[in-house]
Write a structure and sequence with these properties.
- The protein has 414 residues and is of the alpha+beta class.
- It folds into two domains: 204 residues, no CATH class; 192 residues, no CATH class.
- It contains 16 helices and ten strands.
- It has a six-stranded mixed beta barrel with strand order 2-3-8-5-7-6.
- Helix 1 packs across helix 12, helix 10 packs across helix 12 and helix 10 runs parallel beside helix 15.
Length: 414
């Protein structure tokens, strides 16, 4: 047998005789909560998608973890690589040489970072192969001094595959005439486009042996790039490797090298959550007005219930049930529609673009062809919980006012 407070509260949510307007306000409150919950879920999912997309693009060039030697030199790197490979969470590893250089073609001069790599090993830790606009990393042959440029870098220099570009290294040669820079002609054999300006405009790739000759490293490298099974565990793996590895090494992970960027994205996500929660709060204020009018309309009923022995707590419970039901229904509709839309953003956005006749996210500006979305179920439960809490809090004051109504005062003019 259901408690009578619940039965009366459910009955009051349906329109009867004079309170059609109150029922309309209740429906408006439900719609507002549903709209707010849906907007929160969709926006958080899109921001999760953007964060995942940006993180994927950054870590497609950078690495989950880097191990470098003292003074930028790592001599016995094969032995170190064998030690690191023993860790169960290491998926791949590749040596690299990193150095600054000036790239010159005709009258154009651009500064860039030159990265020496082994094409067969680089595919284990980076995704250049998936972002080649022309050519291939396999064209980087030892001793041929070939080079692969970022798309913006090649455009600014005015070079294309088949052209030559002069690479000037900062390590000079001492001659009787003074210090002379080291200059080497490289053949452009490929162009990549990662979709990140930092890399597309300032990164050039060469073979590891060619980079070692250019920067006079001998058999040494700058360090090792490491890819992990789970990138989010990089800080823990770093600490574990730091305890095991013997030698003078510097270990860093992606959370250290890009911490400011990802913290900014996370802060933006939190602020959007707070701002959009105000939509739900506004809908909750509608519940307050709905219950205030319902209490005024039902004063005679409240008085009769009090004379029949209903306690103030029971009267309060009746209107808490009525307001909470509005919040529950609105939240459930919002959760369902929000999850449905978040899972189908890639389908909905093209429909909107065709309807308005414009491209909302042009690929040449945003480097993405579709709006990314990643539904995070913990976000869904948090949004639903916040909506229910706000709806419940909105019922307290009107319900308390209903519980304070005196039967004699309410029935005086009836």
């Amino acid at each position: 047998m259901l408690p009578y407070e619940l039965l009366i509260g459910l009955r009051y949510t349906r329109a009867k005789r004079r309170n059609h307007f109150i029922s309309f306000i209740s429906m408006t409150s439900m719609g507002g909560i549903a709209l707010g919950v849906m907007a929160l879920i969709v926006v958080l999912s899109v921001m999760n998608g953007f964060q995942e997309e940006l993180r994927g693009r950054i870590l497609g060039v950078a690495s989950h973890m880097e191990i470098s030697g003292s003074g930028g030199k790592l001599a016995d790197w094969p032995e170190l690589a064998s030690q690191v490979q023993k860790h169960p969470e290491v998926r791949g590893m590749a040596p690299f040489v990193m150095g600054q250089a000036l790239l010159v073609q005709g009258s154009e001069t651009k500064g860039a970072v030159v990265r020496g790599l082994l094409p067969s090993e680089e595919v284990k830790v980076a995704e250049f192969a998936n972002h080649m606009r022309s050519g291939s990393l396999d064209n980087l042959k030892p001793g041929e001094f070939n080079i692969v440029l970022g798309s913006d870098l090649s455009r600014s220099l005015g070079v294309f595959p088949g052209d030559k570009v002069a690479v000037i290294a900062p390590q000079g040669i001492v001659t009787p005439a003074g210090m002379m820079p080291r200059i080497k002609q490289f053949n452009v054999v490929g162009i990549f486009q990662m979709g990140m300006f930092e890399y597309d405009a300032g990164l050039a790739l060469v073979h590891l042996q060619d980079a070692q000759k250019l920067y006079r490293l001998g058999d040494s490298v700058s360090g090792l790039r490491v890819k992990l099974e789970d990138m989010d565990r990089a800080p823990w793996v770093l600490r574990e490797l730091a305890k095991v590895l013997q030698g003078d090494f510097y270990l860093s992970d992606w959370t250290m090298s890009h911490t400011s960027f990802f913290q900014a994205v996370q802060i933006e996500k939190r602020m959007m959550f707070i701002i959009l929660t105000l939509i739900v709060a506004v809908a909750a204020f509608n519940i307050v007005s709905t219950l205030v009018m319902a209490v005024t309309d039902k004063q005679a009923d409240i008085a009769i219930l009090r004379t029949l022995g209903a306690s103030p707590g029971s009267i309060m419970a009746i209107f808490i049930v009525q307001g909470s039901l509005i919040g529950v229904i609105g939240t459930l509709f919002g959760l369902f529609s929000g999850v449905l839309l978040a899972l189908n953003v890639e389908t909905v956005v093209p429909l909107i673009e065709r309807a308005v006749g414009m491209d909302l996210f042009p690929a040449d500006v945003y480097y993405i062809s579709e709006l990314p979305s990643k539904l995070n179920w913990p976000d869904v439960w948090v949004v639903g919980g916040v909506a229910l809490i706000l709806a419940f809090l909105a019922t307290l004051y009107p319900s308390w006012r209903a519980a304070r109504i005196q039967p004699a005062e309410a029935l005086r003019y009836e």
